[in-house]
Amino acid sequence: MDIKNVCVIGAGAMGSGIAQLAATHGYNVYLVDITEEILKKAKASIDKNLNRFFVAKGKLSDEEAKKILNRIYLTTNRDEAIKDVQMVIEAVFEDMALKQDLLYDLDKKCQKNVILASNTSSLSITDMALKAKNQERIVGIHFFNPAPVMKLIELIKGKNTSNEILEASKNFAQSLNKTVVTVKDSPGFITTRLIYVLCNEAINMKQEGIASTEDIDTAVKLAFNFPMGPLELSDLVGNDIYLHIGEYLTEKLGENYDPSSLLRKMVKDNYIGRKTKKGFYNY
Ligand SMILES: NC(=O)c1ccc[n+]([C@@H]2O[C@H](COP(=O)([O-])OP(=O)(O)OC[C@H]3O[C@@H](n4cnc5c(N)ncnc54)[C@H](O)[C@@H]3O)[C@@H](O)[C@H]2O)c1
Description:
Blueprint: E1 5-9, H1 13-24, E2 28-32, H2 36-55, H3 62-70, E3 72-75, H4 78-81, E4 87-90, H5 96-109, E5 115-118, H6 125-128, E6 138-142, E7 152-157, H7 163-175, E8 179-184, H8 191-208, H9 213-224, H10 230-237, H11 239-253, H12 261-268
Parallel strand pairs: 1-2, 1-4, 2-3, 4-5, 5-6, 7-8
Antiparallel strand pairs: 6-7
The site of nicotinamide-adenine-dinucleotide has 23 residues, from α1.
């Protein structure tokens, strides 16, 4: 499968990073979102990131950065954007119904050989594909934030994903200079399930009062050589996101994953983390 043009749907934190990454590796990218304003903001942030983390550090020349930016086309017209692409990667909100409808529509409109990939961080690829007719071309391709920097891609094989699509997606991921791991479709895959358990247990410890916020984070960082403690991380990702993941894992895998009652209370009181400037820490 020869992939040259890619469509990325959703120009938020992940979609803009994926667009930047793919364009850096020579792909033409059609970046789609629902308003021009979001798209302009995404392109400005890609421009800033290219300059700050690549040009300023001597990893790219000014001219190369401009070429990368010029390979990213912005549009609110999804049907136009998918006309001449070999792969679509959706990075819209983490919402099963939204993703199911989107994949159904893409499957109806894209040519038969186009790969349809989801960047979901926890939802079932098999369930997401349920409404689509050609479920064998739907695959999970889980990037990490920030996508241009993080080394890993988790590739998820849905129940009906074909081996050919999985292989082509793996080749694509490797062409982006990433290390790829393959995982069966299972709630939270490898990474989200594990990091949720760590963070939720740290929140339980905080609730039990066995140590301070700072000491829990310091212990984890220094004992395991992690760059960030679990409570800092939960604030960064968003406590609301972890609550959502915990509820999904509990529904699918059982009560071992039940979110801490402190996590529930924090979200209810708007202690979401960096987004609301208050969480386990104040910002
Ligand atoms: N943020 C992370 O750290 C992270 C990491 C890995 C995977 N993910 C996954 O990536 C996906 C996106 O997450 P994000 O953090 O970038 O979210 P985000 O809220 O920053 O961006 C989502 C974007 O999708 C757009 N959107 C929504 N519906 C759309 C539609 N119908 N058509 C076009 N655009 C639409 C929104 O306008 C928004 O700009 C989610 O599935 C999330 O679970 C997130």
